Amino acid sequence: MKIYMKSTVDYISKINLRKRISRQKAKEFLPNSPDFFAELTLAYRDMDYELTMFKDLCQFYEYICFLVEDNNTIIQYHLHVGEVVTVISENNSQNFAILKSIFSHQKSNQCFAFIIVDWFEITNQTKVGCPIYKLRIENEGQ
Question: pTM for the complete prediction?
């Protein structure tokens, strides 16, 4: 089953969520933390929406496909849970993350797609001339 989403930005289109994960298995993908809902609320605020209800409106998926248009070139992306992805920031720096979960959330009569990632951070070590990364721990050093 494919779930099609509409993007909130013009350069991303044809968002497809595929292979829905059962509610039982989805529990391992949904952080049992108030931080999850706080982050989801912030994401909606960034899109100029207010979010008041959460309930069971999240559905989880194994992968997502979408098109990105960049300089009149259209690229199709396929992201799977568990993959390591490269993220280019606004200042063109390259960052790496592992894709922890892909989910949709329904607000009113609209459905939005989200991903959750764990970021990697570079260490001061190298091996065979390549930098070594480790998973970033949010509360580290606090």
Answer: 0.76
